[in-house]
């Protein structure tokens, strides 16, 4: 698998693989889209010019695919109706996640979309939740764009600069993945923490 991934990172097909993985992982959060972006960015830093993938193209594709995946989930949830409600009700994990989402949205608003982009399955819960609660696309889209740019910029920077600083692609990729998982753990904590109690009015 590592050999296949290594050959892909030196081929223009890496753009397609990265884009498809990012679009689909809003529905299948187990897909390693973050790992792919970091690995591709590390290959760009380590490879001789002309570099494939190009770091700017990788950043644009990753951010664009992130927004497109968010919008696909948002539209699906808006049109899902009772079928989606039944699917959520059958999953205890999704039910709890949507309950937390409702609380978090009331506290954090659009900023939650950016934070949740880094949390495991947070992107899925936020995008589906925004559509299911019939939020306007003009309220959701700007935050989705900001989330996509922030996540893509963070992931690409980790792989690219980590490899440049550490000198080898494999070490840069390993350290970058640890940093990505750390950001995900912090984001999950911020999304799930209970709201602060407000002092009673006197």
Contiguous runs where pLDDT drops below 50 for at least 5 residues: 197-202
Cα gyration radius (Å): 18 Å
Structural class: mainly alpha
Strand content: under 5%
Instruction: Please outline the major beta sheet.
Output: none
Q: Count of DSSP helices?
A: 9
Mean pLDDT over the full residue set: 75
Query: How does the overall form come out from the CA principal axes?
Result: elongated
Order of helices and strands: HHHHHHHHH
Count the strands?
Answer: 0
Distance between termini? 64 Å
Overall helicity: over 70%
Per-chain topology:
Blueprint: H1 2-8, H2 13-24, H3 33-46, H4 55-90, H5 92-108, H6 111-116, H7 122-132, H8 137-166, H9 169-192
Helix pairs in contact: 2-3, 2-4, 3-8, 3-9, 4-7, 4-8, 8-9
Explain this structure.
By secondary structure, the chain is mostly helical. Helices cover 78% and strands 0% of the residues.
Index terms:
202 residues, mainly alpha, 78% helix, elongated
State the gist of this model.
The chain is mainly α and 202 residues long.
């Amino acid at each position: 698998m590592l050999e296949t991934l290594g050959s892909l990172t030196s081929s223009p097909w890496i753009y397609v693989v990265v884009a498809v993985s990012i679009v689909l992982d809003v529905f299948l959060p187990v897909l390693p889209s973050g790992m792919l972006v970091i690995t591709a960015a590390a290959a760009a830093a380590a490879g001789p010019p002309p570099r494939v993938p190009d770091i700017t193209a990788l950043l644009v594709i990753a951010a664009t695919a992130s927004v497109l995946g968010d919008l696909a989930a948002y539209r699906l949830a808006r049109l899902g109706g009772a079928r989606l409600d039944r699917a959520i009700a059958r999953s205890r994990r999704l039910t709890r996640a949507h309950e937390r989402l409702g609380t978090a949205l009331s506290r954090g608003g659009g900023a939650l979309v950016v934070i949740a982009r880094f949390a495991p399955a947070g992107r899925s819960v936020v995008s589906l939740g925004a559509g299911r609660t019939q939020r306007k696309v003009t309220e959701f889209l700007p935050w989705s764009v900001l989330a996509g740019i922030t996540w893509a910029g963070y992931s690409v920077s980790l792989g690219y600069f980590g490899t440049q600083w550490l000198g080898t692609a494999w070490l840069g990729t390993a350290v970058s993945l640890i940093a990505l998982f750390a950001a995900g753990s912090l984001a999950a904590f911020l999304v799930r923490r209970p709201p602060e109690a407000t002092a009673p009015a006197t």
